[in-house]
Amino acid sequence: MVKKEGSPGEGYADSDWEGCHYKIIASCGRAKSAHMETVHGEIETPVFMNVGTAAAIKGGVSADDLYEIGTQVELSNTYHLHVRPGDGLIRELGGLHRFMGWDRPILTDSGGFQVFSLAGTGRKIREEGVFFHSHIDGRKIFMGPEESMRIQSNLASTIAMAFDECPPALADRTYIEPSVERTTRWLRRCMEEMRRLNALPDTLNPRQLLFGINQGGILPDIRLRHAEEIRSLDLPGYAIGGLAVGETHEEMYSILDIVVPALPREKPTYLMGVGTPENIIEAVDRGVDFFDCVYPSRNGRHGHVYTHRGKLNLFNSKYEKDPLPIEEGCGCPACAGSVRPDGSRGPGFSRAYIRHLLKAKEILGLRLCVLHNLYFYNHLMEEIREAIRGGTWRDWKEAALRRYRGGAGQSS
RNA sequence: GUGGGUAUAGCGAAGCUGGUUAUCGCGCCAGAUUGUGGUUCUGGAGAUCCUGGGUUCAAGUCCCAGUACCCACC
Q1: Domain count of chain A?
Q2: Can you give the distance from the CA of residue A130 to the C1' of nucleotide B53 in angstroms?
Q3: Residues facing residue A195 across a β-bridge
Q4: Which strand B bases fall within 7 angstroms of a protein CB?
Q5: What is the pLDDT of residues A145-162, one digit of tens each?
Q6: ipTM of the predicted structure?
Q7: Is A292 marked active-site?
Q8: Is the full-model pTM beyond 0.90?
Q9: Same domain membership, residue A206 and residue A353
Q10: From A109, A164, A285, A289, the catalytic residue
Q11: Residue A221 known to be catalytic
């Protein structure tokens, strides 16, 4: 990666890399909205990345569907694609974009989180990397910074994530401190390996970006020191990891209050794995502009659907005869129907019908709920961008939070 | 008609030689899920143990009669 000359924009310096130009368009307090150009197209932030772990959005949603529901960035997983079908195979077939039929930006998670989330299967963390067992066939797997970078290079995603360790939320200082120090050493190795891979003549994406990840549990001093340390390594973007893993919302927000100002404002800031609409609004307000979360897709598969007044559980018997769409006025394929060849929209589907599909275990039920939820999140981010760019962020935020909290549905 | 078998929650079943509050699966009702657990995990409601009589301190369980269904043979 070669950094080019940066130029100031809207009162803030923007950042310019080979394969990435990031420019803040508007801001309100710490909240910011940026325009980012990548080798795979543009990204308007704040953005919610739609999670397709194994090169597919679970619930019968194809990458092709994502164009219709306003997805900007798709997120896939290094570890999952490595064990099946294998990153070598995906490289042979031209990389992840061609493999899954998606030509816009892709972010690949590094596999670091799997080391944490798949704990208990005899994992061993060493300086060189992590030994653990495949969740598919139980075979022993080794993954370290270099392995993760090679896999992500084979996948040829737009943005690769650093290989880090995500310690448990309630781990104490004696665990967190050496863990974070190792994560920093791993980050340097990731950078070196990615630089080497990007320079290879046959690499699929010579402009692959690497984002660093801040860790430190809920210990403010370690978080801050680590943020300053990785900031000095001058990466094109920074993520905050290890949050939303068991700590309270207030603890998470207070860590953001410390970490986000310590990271470069003129670069993308990504809060990993978060979260609820409320979490996202609060984090945007603190300066975060990239998000991802399994909630919309997993909740959709479980029949929990989002509305501006909270969440509905479509399995509940009160929706048995409900002729309304999930949310009136929603433009998603489930509520408003798909766009027909003549440009008109289909009639859409009722809560009663989708409930029936879910109860009957028809795959269409999952699909409609997931499409609705992803559309809802993507549209939420659009509302957030409009509010920041239109200068109405503070009022919008208060009104939106009141609506979610005051609604009839549940909040998470 | 003769012989044999069965009857326990909406459905399918367990309940040993009688002994606390009758158990399990599915279904039903509800809750959970934060860099993915493809319907997963946790809870909950629901039973005149076919009917009537008897034996016993005590009967889903033993005895008698009836009813319904199943199988075999005439």
Answers
A1: 2
A2: 75
A3: none
A4: 27-40
A5: 999 999 999 999 999 999
A6: 0.83
A7: yes
A8: yes
A9: no
A10: A109
A11: no
